[in-house]
Amino acid sequence: MTVRQLPTADLGLTSLLRAADWPGEDLRGSAHVQILDEATLGPSRLLVVASRESPGTRYFVPVLRAEPAREAVGHAAHDRAVVEAMRDRLALPTAAGNVIQFDGDPAPFRDTRPFDPGWSTNALSLADLDGALHIHKAYRRIDADTREAHLLRLMHRGGRTQRWVGDYHYVERATGRRHPLGLLYAYAEGDSLDLPLRHSIRSMWPILHGGAEPAEAVAAAQRGLTGELPAVGRFLRDFHTELADRLGPTPMIPVREYLRQTGARVAALSARISADERYPRAVRDAVVVALTGELDQATASAGVPWPAGPAHGDLHLSHILRQESEGGWQLCVIDLSTPAADPADPVGSAQSPWQDIVALLRGLDIFTADEFVHQAAMRLGTDQDDTCRTVLLISAGHPPDTPGWTPSRITALRRMHDAASRWAGQVRRLLLTGYAGPPENWQEHPAWRIFRLRRLLHELDYAYAHDQHYHAAINLRHVLQNYRPAGAGEN
């Protein structure tokens, strides 16, 4: 194979990267974007690029040959070329002597349909293949650990995930290592799980404001969910069972190192919280006590076995799609990111189905908090950020320290908070009951508590790193509300 000289830069590519909303600062802010490899596929150039400052972080950027500042994914001619390459099982040579290997058995391409995927780190388009809609996903960041294509190949016949149709990989000549570049799968109809939950909680507020007690308002708002949410739990249990059958056993979680790393993260975040002068000192101290107390309590009882097994990897409410039918909701789980076992990183690749359930319930908590704060601010005529912060202060036993919080407003805020907490608690019970009918002390297991704590740490780290003080206040409040000092009753 003749390897041709690569251009080191491209004005069209530079223009594209500066205008797009997905590149990180390593690309958008770099004056030195390099083309490391490329191949030509029909109307497109398939580029492998990196910044000169971070050459190890590579990106896949397909662009149109006729319009070099335009991404190719979503253009009908490019999508057609990709589908035909899959049908032909094309091994496409690259300029640097590597190969882009296409695989699959898609139906004939008809057209690319209008599609708004919203913001995504990946490039997405909607392709019509012989009358059936499919998603073409191109991974912008090149990462050999991206396993979605492999997982869908294994799982799609079970009917709980999207149906795999084809994929393509960048194969390095020197090492044989395969890096996923793109995936084609059947479009999954339906709405995400947060839609019926949003309808439910928003139907609760008028009932509550009409004079009903919080428990009555919750019961009335959840009548349409009581039969469906346990089925969601059963679906997730069956998904985890199938995933374990397909992938086989996973290594046991290295509990001692897992706890050590968690402790280091708690210490680092505690220092950051202590220095955050947006909140009174007493509130910051209470959060730090709750963080360290939760870690200490879970560590003290960590000698019991921890459940291990393959998991989705990053489960959110939006990753469960539901479609209404006469027999109840038809469900599908999307965007699988199950990590591979890595002997070099046993903690980072450690996994348990419980991590998925914890992540889903943390998503529920954040969803509920956001709905509650939004509704409370509208009802009380207060600023939403100030309302969120005030709920945190009250949860820490600290009085509001901004103007306008009269006793009547605080009473109304507490009442709405009570209703929101009851609503979320009942959703949680319905999901968990369906998942396995867990024992009463399941959520007191040290593994569950540490998984939940690490999820909170992740969310707080992200909020602080991106200066999201609204979401930081929500998660700081959840730290307080999750922790129960030894001998204390339920919060």
Q: Could you name the CATH class of the largest domain?
A: Alpha Beta
Helix content: 40-55%
- The CA-CA distance between the termini, in Å, is 68 Å
Q: Could you state the CATH homologous superfamily of the largest domain? A: Aminoglycoside phosphotransferase (APH), C-terminal lobe
Task: Provide the β-strand percentage band.
Answer: 15-25%
Number of helices: 14
Tally of discrete structural domains? 2
Could you report the average pLDDT, rounded to the nearest whole number? Answer: 92
Provide the CATH topology of the largest domain. Aminoglycoside 3'-phosphotransferase, Chain: A, domain 2
How many strands, which pairing sense, and closed or not: the largest β-sheet?
7 strands, antiparallel
- The CATH architecture term of the largest domain is Alpha-Beta Complex
Poorly predicted regions are 1-5
Structural class: alpha+beta
InterPro entries: Kinase-like_dom_sf
Protein name: Aminoglycoside phosphotransferase domain-containing protein
Description of the structure:
The strands form 3 sheets. The protein has a 7-stranded antiparallel sheet. A 3-stranded antiparallel sheet has the order 1-2-3. A 3-stranded antiparallel sheet has the order 11-12-13, covered by helices on one side. α8 (255-274) packs antiparallel against α9 and α9 (281-300) packs antiparallel against α13 (446-465). The protein is of the alpha+beta class and 491 residues long. It folds into 2 domains: 11-22 and 31-187, no CATH class; 194-482, Alpha-Beta Complex (Aminoglycoside 3'-phosphotransferase, Chain: A, domain 2). It has helices at 11-19, 25-28, 76-87, 148-155, 194-209, 214-221, 229-247, 255-274, 281-300, 353-380, 384-395, 407-436, 446-465, 469-482; strands at 33-41, 44-51, 59-64, 91-93, 99-104, 109-113, 123-129, 132-138, 164-171, 178-186, 191-192, 320-323, 330-333.
